[in-house]
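Checklist before submission:
- one chain only
- standard amino acids only
- sequence pasted in full

Submission:
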Amino acid sequence: MTLPWQQQQWEHLSSYIAQKRMPQALLIIGNKGLGKQQLARQFAVALLCTIPQANGMACGRCSSCLLVNANTHPDFIEVQPEEPGKGIGIGQIRSLITRLTLKPQFETYRVVIINPADMMNNAAANAFLKCLEEPTERTSIILISEKPAKLPATIISRCQKLAVTTPDREVTVDWLQDKSPLSKREDLFCTVSLAQGAPLLALDYANDKTLIQRNECFEAWMAIAKQRQSPVIIAEDWQKLPAAPLIFWVTSWIIDLIKCFYHTQVENLYNPDLNEQLQELSKRLELKGLYKLYDLLLLGRQRLDTQINKQLLFEEILIQWHELNRSK
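Returned file contents:
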């Protein structure tokens, strides 16, 4: 079933099937939690299906569909990191190239999904170019990426692009209403904000109580602001948590504080439920200091892709936050 916010993208993909003009290489881009993998797989299964429906969707009953569901279809190839956090190596791409030298075993298409494509290392990406420069018959390659800028221009230029965009918050909240354990719409809106508007990520957050964890981190952050807690101790606790969402939360608090200086309406804040505390903080902080801390947070986000010591990163951020408040 097509996700509500992907209807336009699916119509675009299904038109390929209707016109029998399959892309040799397709790059699907978009932020995390928008369902890019689901969309790519939906398209792949439809290409492999022997009796697709009028709307382009796979029938779910033919031998090809049954083989896909059993993860045994010989013409459906998925390439992904062998371990979480690792890249896609040249060995995996060489193995793919070898498989693509053979003809598809079925009479429809052969589909390759590479996810995330930007995790190919330099050697793998260079080897992968061979697949694009020397396309094999009845083969469609789908690349998925949250960070297409990390892909070589030589790969991007050889792909047709399809962007999955973040839906309107109301659409996401309505979709979450019957799927999430959260019952209050204000809690759903907060969760969607934490997920930066990504519906599937918001659903994960609702199920794993991320909102509770964020509130606990905000309380610790406020305790530092009130000089009641040591930034070093909090940094030691925070280094045990997932760094990327935590950096985003802190960044969102700083952005909201800056917005409070300009009297932005509550509904336009990342954290509308924290408005009262943020407004109070903004009255005694210097805008210049907030911008300086914001720059440090942006640098911290870039450093997350390196081997940086997370505790030292959080210490630097929280000590600067402590000093910003101490001056007042």
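Reviewer check: Residues 209-326 form a domain with the Zinc Finger, Delta Prime; domain 3 fold (CATH 1.20.272.10).
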